Amino acid sequence: MKPTLYFLLAFCLIIPACKQDQRPAAKKPTKGRVILQNKPEGYVEESLAASIGPNRKYNLTLSRYCLMDRGFEVVFPLENGDTSVVNFRDWKVSFELLEGDQLIVKEEFDKYVFKTHIPNDDALNFSFISKVDVAGYNALEDRVHIKCLLLSVRSNTGYYFDLRIGPNGIERIDKVEIT
C-alpha cells in the first residue's frame, strides 16, 4: 500500500502545479511602441569645390558634416498610437578659401553662428544645418557668398542665410528668408 500512497501523494502535488494559470492573460500591446531613429543613421559628409571670382581666381572648398556626439531628440506621436523618437544630429560646416595656392581663410561654424538672427532659443536648439552651397562672388565687395539653410524641427521653420566670406572669415550674416 505504501507505493500506492506515494503515487497518490505525488499525483496530488503534481497535478495542481501543471494546471494552466487561471488568471486572465495580459494582452500584449498592439500599440504604443517606441521607435528610435537617428537622422542620419551614421556619419555623413558632403563636400564641394568651386572656382569663383574674376578669372576664377578663388578656390572655395565647402563641407557639411554631421557630428556623432551632438544633437537633439524630438518625439513624434504617430497616428497608430506608436511614438517615434528621432535623434537629429547636429552639423558643422567648414570652408577653405584660397587665391591660387595661397590660403586666405579656413573656418568652421555650426548652427550657433546664427544665434543673433533667431530670437527663439528653442527654435535654434532644435534646428540643424540642412543645406549649404556657394551663392557666388560679389565683385564690388570682393567677397564670396555662401547660402545656408537652417531647419528648426520644433517650430517647423526654415531660415535661409547669406554669409559673406572674406579674408577675416565670416564677415557678415544676413537672414534672407523665413519659410
Give the name of the CATH architecture: Beta Barrel
Shape: elongated
Q: What is the terminal separation in angstroms? A: 92 Å
CATH class: Mainly Beta
Estimate the helix proportion, in percent: 10-25%
In total, the number of domains comes to 1
Number of strands: 9
Which sequence of SSEs, written as H and E, runs from N to C?
A: HEEEEEHEEEE
The CATH H-level homologous superfamily: Protein of unknown function DUF4738
User: What portion of the residues fall into strands of 2 or more residues?
Assistant: over 45%
Give the helix tally: 2
Task: Flag low-confidence runs.
Answer: 1-30
Q: Which structural class should the secondary elements be placed in?
A: mainly beta
CATH topology: Lipocalin
Radius of gyration: 30 Å
Give a short account of the largest sheet: 5 strands, mixed
Mean pLDDT: 83
Topology:
Elements: H1 2-18, E1 34-39, E2 45-52, E3 58-77, E4 83-99, E5 102-110, H2 121-125, E6 127-138, E7 143-152, E8 157-166, E9 169-178
Parallel strand pairs: 1-4
Antiparallel strand pairs: 2-3, 3-4, 4-5, 6-7, 7-8, 8-9
What would you say this structure looks like, in words?
By secondary structure, the chain is mainly β. It has one domain: Lipocalin (Beta Barrel), CATH 2.40.128. The chain has two helices and nine strands; from the N terminus they run H-E-E-E-E-E-H-E-E-E-E. The strands form two sheets. Strands 1, 2, 3, 4 and 5 form a five-stranded mixed beta sheet that branches. Strands 6-7-8-9 form a four-stranded antiparallel beta sheet. A hairpin with a 5-residue loop joins strand 3 and strand 4. It is elongated and about 60 Å long.
